Amino acid sequence: MYRSRNTLLVLALVLLVAASVAAQGSDEAKSLLHQGKYVPDIATFLQIGANSPAGVNWDDGTVYITSSISGSNQVYRINEHGWPYQLTTFEDGIDYFILNHAGDLAIVGADVGGSEQSQLYLMDTETGRIMQLTHYEDIQFGSVAWSKDDSKIYFRSNEENGRDFHIYEMDITTGEQKKIFGDTDGVHGYLAIGDINHDNSKMIIYRFTSNVNNELYLLDVASGDYEKLTEDDGDVMYISPTLMPDGETIWLVCNDNEDGMGRLAKMKVGSTKVEFVDDGWLDPRWEVEGLGFSRDYKHMGATINEEGYVRLRLREVETGKELPSPPLDGIIGGGMSDKDGNIYISFNGPTRAPDVWKWNPDSEELTQLTFSAYAGIDREIFSDPSLVKFESFDGLEVPAFMYLPPNYKEGEAIPFIIHAHGGPEGQFQPYFQRNIQYLILNGYGLLAVNPRGSSGYGLEYLNMDNYKNRKHSLMDYKAAVDWLIEQGYTEKGMIGIRGGSYGGYVVLGMITEYPELFSAAVDVVGIANFETFLKNTADYRRALRESEYGPLSDPEFLREVSPIHKAHLIKTPLLVVHGENDPRVPVSEARQIIAAVGDNGGVVDSLIFPDEGHGTSKRVNIIAEYRKQVEFFNRHLKKMTVEEPEG
Question: In the CATH hierarchy, which fold is given to the domain comprising 383-637?
């Protein structure tokens, strides 16, 4: 059957119009999608992935990563096709992964239920076959390092008394182990491995006496002889030590200087003098967070904290020549390398989930190796924070990161959440946080404060909240709220606060010291009673915590700063989240405050996980926690209006 030319022309026009209408409909649909009116459920946000480098084979560049793609943190090998091959399937994920020098074996650390009692497992990195090396439910193993010939591993363990960490050696082939350092001539406490030199003869060991003070020792591995490398007055941190092949030079980062900032430095074995290296390579405005070297000691890299953002700087060791740094703006970590000069890093930012990247400073070639899934959410709807500063009660300038909704109108008062970080020596950094982006898209503002006591701003700032000055940091949070109101960002009745660990204490401290300030509060694994916390925290943590919060020998002060003794003042609706297996802040802290608020007739809700520790790690629990947080804030912070019926 034949059609006339006119019929064909009409048919063509009809098809053209139909295609045009379809295209228009498609464009309109896309336009609706891009208007940002649809915000997925918090569970969808928490499906967004995260990938970080775990190890790199020096010889062939095989990359190992940790990823949350399965719902818990597991190890994967990137195969020859660029696809992640899963190597571990621990129910609660892994704690760490330490690759040997040949790249064919690794030590995996894993605990059960968030207990943090990591046990050691030997892994074949080709097949993923695993053999458990240690079997102690109440002992923690960590700070693992391989001998240069891969026949032994070194690690720290508190197996002797549950309190002090000593350094041990284990023969991988026989499983035999022995203590090689600790509890000798008064050298005991919180020990960890800092470095093992190129021929496996010397080991640098940390001894931490508090979270802001440590010492370094040099151990002769064969003989057991040792010497103390450092001598100082006051609180000083020595981090990232590396003993160079000459056997004399130690590169490190140290803050024993006028401004108390971590700086690039050198030492000589046999002398306790620290020589700071100020040769123009690093900007003196910023603190050095860490230092690392390639296996052949040809290249060195330093991570720099630029007011919360982390950059990587590279240079040649012999010549001091600076090498190009990866052109990435956000939070950079990792810094593993291979024999071809490639550097493998993690990178993330406020609107970008963590991924693994490869950077070659010679060719300046940057390659993204992993691609975190965004669960169907368009990254363009995420928001970057702005760095703001405000004055506290004594004139101190306090920095904070402020997030505002994409459609925020200047001068508009919106519900706001104050975010309190843990530590207290921690620092809020603008890395990717799924739940923060979710809150912003749901109309909340968020102010993440770095009060006195935070790291990243020098030793003086770090120590401003110690012991008797504990409440001064709370006053910084009060100043943050006052600033938000003065600037017109929010108003009373619309302000909430949340925090985890020490940040959980901040939450409880704020709603007892300033009962009228907040309309909702979320305490996650927080401290309610400093006396019971110090008595019940893990033995190996007590001494370090007493140096920060105050000693058990001063119960009057500990009672005065403990929110539990002022629980009758709490008027703010409170949500408490905790894990039953928490070794840091025992779950009894949560139960105390829940009971106290309830007995006083306050509004309190709770979420206690039987299979978690110091924070949630299982995806199903993370979803349950943040769904509860969001519902709680919505209920108490958002003004609900009801339209009056007409007539």
Answer: Rossmann fold (3.40.50)
